[in-house]
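Bug #77: duplicate submission created two jobs. Keeping one. Sequence:
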Amino acid sequence: MTKRLLLTGGAGFIGHHIVNLFLKETDWEIVSLDRLDYSGNLNRLHDVISTYPKSDQKRVKIVWHDLKAEIRELTSNFIGDVNVILHLAASSHVDRSISHPMEFVMDNTIGTVNLLNYARGLKNLERFIYFSTDEIFGSAPEGVLYGEYDRYNSTNPYSASKAAAEEFCVAYENTYKLPIFVTHTMNVFGERQHPEKFIPMCIRKIRDNEKIFVHSDPSKTKAGSRFYINAKDVAEAMYFLLHLDNNQHQIIRDHMNSLGVRCPKFNVVGKEEIDNLSMVKIIAEAQNKDPVYEMVDFHTSRPGHDLRYSLDGAFMRKLGWEPRISLRERLHEVTHWSLANKEWIEL
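Kept job's structure:
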């Protein structure tokens, strides 16, 4: 029997890459639940879906809904019987969370609880994956890699709203035995990302010989660093987690028993850490240009942001997954694609 995947935020940046992969690798029906705000764009879905035969295009259905409201019977009927839920929909702009924190509580925390309550009523739910973030752990000191179950230390309302939603997922797994997985990922980039994000912005500014401001420590000599990961790799990680074998499930059970926890969590991490200045130089290299940049003190320019984030990807590697392609190759790939599809990097 064909499975049905409910993907919240399917018209979003990461979501449409998941739609593309699952159309390619499965025969599943896909329902994208979206409210189509500033982060959702149906043109993303059109770009990927239109490359498939009509029979596959019909496997994708878009249902409008704002998760600040409960999913009631009429919307549920449009969605149909669901086997798998991937919950990606969220407000994610840190700066906006600082000026409008309650919007993020409603979108990210209340929205997640509404989806969890909907999931409780499903008869054939096999898996619910909640897409969380590295930012719940806060700034990572040099040399520290946060594990899946480390303490929260939110430094802005966005990360706090995601941490609260994550705890609700843990509670619903423990209380109602919902089959929940939680994933943490960080600094995702790729084709069709919002043009205000750092990598598409860098691609555009290097093309146009404009100055890039690189966030650094107060001395303006050490750039902030991240484990960047391509959206295609994130999609592959979601596919991997939904197709675990018995041996991998046993590894997860043993791991959780050793920690005394019951809700499985997974860090989906890029292969290598890179500072933002080095990344700017790789993007410039892909264009055969020299970047124009200035180091700026991130504490002054970006209150509520952290200089370094870091996750430990050892557990996913133990299960058998890590990105297949190097960060440099992915950055070159995205740069060339973006320059050839310039409508996606124009503000």
